[in-house]
């Protein structure tokens, strides 16, 4: 009975059935959180773990059927590693190697040339959780003086039980699309500590509904406009026949619309976490904060004219995970650029094995490098600083936003089209304008700096 209903719903919405199942599963998180608040908040930890485990397993079965065994296998192996290998570097390396290879094998055997919703989608989220768990368990055996403040917050004083790891892994608010959170945060949720009313469920209904409403608006925007900006249009003769300016503007608008797919899912899922209490983040300036699980800064995402600003506003928890467990733990390398490259390489293969991911993240590195040099130039040049703060700023802002979204869309093309024959066709049609723009900007930056920055300022920067 359910299958025909889902088929009819997907046809009426014009969306694939797996996508409909996914969004319904994220929405089901809200009644699950209400049930938890009403019936399980004061229950023993074992009961709460069971509720979270079976509710998450039900969502996994609804979306992926028997394929849910992949997550169960990896959770069991991770638990055995913690139990049998202890707080050692070997545990961390073994965990990272096994979980990453399992995910990559999943990509290899299930990958197609289209974006498919299959078991590997939530599994990439789970992989970060389980590897992060091994890091946090390892940190729990160190002296507090050896840990950073965020490591102290996440460090585990003892090995968790299998049921605890299952509840943490299958928690309905983060199993399918994230966000990332630590086992310590989950333990605090189960202990009833993540609330603004000690001993009672949190007053989080209104904050949760605000995020739901915002996510729903983003979902409506995507549903309405995505049919007008399909990925497949790039590969048509009609797109190639359009004027150059039209092709560029299409990339800009397509990028803006396509990202709402991710924004809507993350913001709605964040609302589930807030409703359950997991999103509670203490008190700041006398106000209770509910952004512990925020994966999007929507206002920054919509208003920033900077590439760095968009990256800082998008998929926050995954970026924070990569910074905490990859970038910062490569401190021994002694080179921030190499650490940055290694982190982007990790994120590349974590997303998948297609060439488009490699190109996307390599371009991200290059674009951010050029932008940082440009911002330093504006900061150090009296003329450019004055211009940036003049009455012309509104016009400058509009131009910035156009360049920003055009070249945000540019690296997204290979990210969404996957294979080189497809993204190469699109880049050829726009004459590799993004590559040319940033290469020229990179090459002329030293000359602009020499012409626009006072000599004494340049000398001071060299000394620093």
Q: Could you estimate the helical fraction of the residues in percent?
A: over 70%
| Gyration radius over CA | 24 Å
Mass-distribution shape = globular
End-to-end gap: 70 Å
Task: List the uncertain runs.
Answer: none
Average pLDDT, rounded to a whole number, is: 93
Main beta-sheet annotation: 2 strands, antiparallel
Which strand order does the major sheet show? 1-2
Number of domains: 2
Q: Which band does the percent of strand residues land in?
A: under 5%
DSSP E strands, number: 2
Tally of alpha and pi helices: 22
Order of helices and strands: HHHHHHHHHHHHEEHHHHHHHHHH
Structural class: mainly alpha
Structural topology:
Blueprint: H1 2-13, H2 17-40, H3 45-64, H4 69-85, H5 89-110, H6 120-139, H7 149-154, H8 162-170, H9 183-190, H10 205-225, H11 237-241, H12 244-276, E1 283-284, E2 287-288, H13 298-303, H14 307-313, H15 316-327, H16 336-351, H17 355-380, H18 382-388, H19 393-417, H20 420-429, H21 433-452, H22 455-463
């Amino acid at each position: 009975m359910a299958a025909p209903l889902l088929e009819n719903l997907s046809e009426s919405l014009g969306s694939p059935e797996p996508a409909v199942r996914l969004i319904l599963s994220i929405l089901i998180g809200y009644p699950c959180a209400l049930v938890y608040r009403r019936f399980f908040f004061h229950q023993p930890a074992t009961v709460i773990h069971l509720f979270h485990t079976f509710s998450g397993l039900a969502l996994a079965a609804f979306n992926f059927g028997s394929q849910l065994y992949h997550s169960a296998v990896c959770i069991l192996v991770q638990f055995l590693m913690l139990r049998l290998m202890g707080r050692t570097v070997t545990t961390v390396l073994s965990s990272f190697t096994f979980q990453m290879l399992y995910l990559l094998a999943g990509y290899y055997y299930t990958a197609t040339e289209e974006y498919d919703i299959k078991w590997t989608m939530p599994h990439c989220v789970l992989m970060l959780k389980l590897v992060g768990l091994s890091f946090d368990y390892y940190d729990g055996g160190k002296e507090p003086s050896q840990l950073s403040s965020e490591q102290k917050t996440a460090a585990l004083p003892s090995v968790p039980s299998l049921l605890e790891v299952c509840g943490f892994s299958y928690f309905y608010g983060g199993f399918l699309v994230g966000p990332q959170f630590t086992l310590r945060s989950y333990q605090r949720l189960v202990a009833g500590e993540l609330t603004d009313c000690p001993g009672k469920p949190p007053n989080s209904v209104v904050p949760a509904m605000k995020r739901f409403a915002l996510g729903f608006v983003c979902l409506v925007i995507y549903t309405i406009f995505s049919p007008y900006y399909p990925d497949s249009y790039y590969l048509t003769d009609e797109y190639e026949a359009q004027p150059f300016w039209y092709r560029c503007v299409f990339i800009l608008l397509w990028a803006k619309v396509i990202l709402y797919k991710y924004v809507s899912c993350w913001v709605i899922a964040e609302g589930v976490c807030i409703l359950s209490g997991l999103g509670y983040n203490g008190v700041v300036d006398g106000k209770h904060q509910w952004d512990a699980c925020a994966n999007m800064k929507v206002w920054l995402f919509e208003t920033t004219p900077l590439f760095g600003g968009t990256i800082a506003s998008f998929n926050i928890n995954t970026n924070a995970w990569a910074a905490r467990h990859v970038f910062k733990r490569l401190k021994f390398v002694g080179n921030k650029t190499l650490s940055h490259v290694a982190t982007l390489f990790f994120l590349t293969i974590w997303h998948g094995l297609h060439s488009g991911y490699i190109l996307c993240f390599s371009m991200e590195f290059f674009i951010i490098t050029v932008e940082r040099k440009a911002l330093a130039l504006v900061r150090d040049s009296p003329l450019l600083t004055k211009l940036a703060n003049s009455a012309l700023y509104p016009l400058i802002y509009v131009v910035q936003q156009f360049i920003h979204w055009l070249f945000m869309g540019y690296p997204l093309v290979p990210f969404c089209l996957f294979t080189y024959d497809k993204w190469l066709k699109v880049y050829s049609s726009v004459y590799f304008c993004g590559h040319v723009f940033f290469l020229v900007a990179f090459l002329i930056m030293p000359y602009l700096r020499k012409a626009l920055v006072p000599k004494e300022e340049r000398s001071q920067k060299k000394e620093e």
